[in-house]
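REVIEWER CHECKLIST
Item 1: Sequence provided? yes
Item 2: Single chain? yes
Item 3: Sequence as submitted:
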Amino acid sequence: MADGKAEVTEIGAVDVSPVTKPSFKSRVAAHFKRFWWVHVIVLIVVVLVVTLPVVYVGYPNIAQHDINDSSLEVTELVISDPTPESFHFKQTQVIHSDSIFHPKIYAFDADVSLAGEKPFARAHIPEVKANDGTVVHVEQNLDLSDVDAFGGFAKAVMLNKEIQMNVYGRPNLKQGGLPKITITYNKTVTMNGLNKLEGFKMLEMRMGKKDSDGNNGQGKVSIPNPSVMSITMGNVTLNLSVEGTHIGESFLNDLVLRPGNNTVDMKAKINTESMIPFLSKFKDNVVPVDITGNSSVYNGKELPYFASALAANKLTVDMDILSALA
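Item 4: Structure as written out by the authors:
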């Protein structure tokens, strides 16, 4: 470097291989390998966000809607062995439902009432599978929680062509593998009533000497029952009158009103002297006799709820006095 010029030394080039860029699949695999736990948490959150509203909101709402949409048909109702505070209850009912779901409804206690009125008893409803056409049998002794309320029910049955009976409870329900939930069971069933015993007829009546009980009349009456109810009323006493004048009493012993026409033996205590003034007043000696309930007694105990229902319904039959006395 005597001349002061810079000396340039040539360095040979070194071969360097290009760095290979990882593929997309490799990067994704590495990401999941590193952050798998994050994705598991996200998946769990998504599943919970989707399923929890379905299970705890949608499922109960659908179940309640289907219960509300279903209907009940009562095909048999038997009231027997009555006391002033209870009776034996037997009912057959059919569930009607268009739902695609068929949940299990667990056994529950239900308040029974005339629709819109106070409950008169609490019935135990057995466990059922809610399929369309499922037949449910209920049979038990019912204690009356409200005797007056049952009296109102009995009177409604006597006086109306149709009545509505309400059943209310809070049973548990379960569909398949879904959790058990509580729903409201509030069903109103429409049934035929006794329709004021329309069509009641005196088939025959004969008056003569008094028997050992003091009865001087006996005959038969026809009592129609257009309902599905069979009702044990015991020994029924009826007041007989003509234009407000009391002429006697009639007795229907061991009365059970079954569906259809009931032909029942009748005995009577009639004051024939009190009827004499009416013989000339009515054509052909056919006198319109008014009949109203007096009492209902079963096993020696008065049944006030049946007595009041009978008293609320006045019947009128034509009695041929001369034929009855012949």
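Item 5: Key structural point noted by reviewer: The two ends are 171 Å apart (CA to CA).
Item 6: Recommendation: ____
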